[in-house]
Fold:
Amino acid sequence: MTHGFTVASDRVWRLRPITPGWQCQRTGDCCTQVPALRMTVAERAAIDASGISPQRPAAWDLTSETGWAFLQAQPCPYFTRDENRQGVCTIYAVRPFVCRRFGCFRPVPDKEPLELDRSPLGCRNLSDRVGQSAEVLHAYRRMQRKAQEWAVLHGWKKFRRVDR
Ligand code: SF4
Ligand code: SF4
Structure:
C-alpha cells in the first residue's frame, strides 16, 4: 500500500488502463493477499520501536535466512479498515521496504482483480503496465527511488533493477 505517485499522461492503454495521477485505492488487496512480508531485522526493529500493537497476533519467522525477518500475512496483522471500509496500514510511517515499493496501479480495482503471480514484479497488473507504458514505468521508478531511501537506512543492500 502506498500513496501519491502519479502517472503524467492521460493516455489509456487498451488492455491495462492507466490514469493520470494514480494513487493507491486502499482496497487492502495487497495487504490481505501477500502470504508473508520479508524485511530486514532493522525494519522489524523499527516496527517494534513504534510501540504500535498489531490488530491480530503477529507471527514472525526468524529462522529461514540470517538477517531477514518474515512476518506472516494474508492478512498482514498491521492491516485494518476505517469506518468507510478503506484499507489502513497502522504502521504506515514504519512500514517495510516491500510495502513502500509496491503499487498495483489499477485505476478501477473493482473491475480488475489483483493478480499476484510470478511475473517480473510479482504482480501481473503492475508488471504488464510497467512493461507497456512509459508513464507507469516512470512513476514506478519514482516509487522505487523513494522506497530505497528508506531501505538503505534499514539494512537493504541489493535492489532489483527497475530499468526494464
Ligand atoms: S492492491 Fe493496489 S489499490 Fe489496493 S491497497 Fe494495494 S496498492 Fe493500493
Ligand atoms: S505493513 Fe502496512 S502496507 Fe505493509 S502489508 Fe501490512 S498493512 Fe499493508
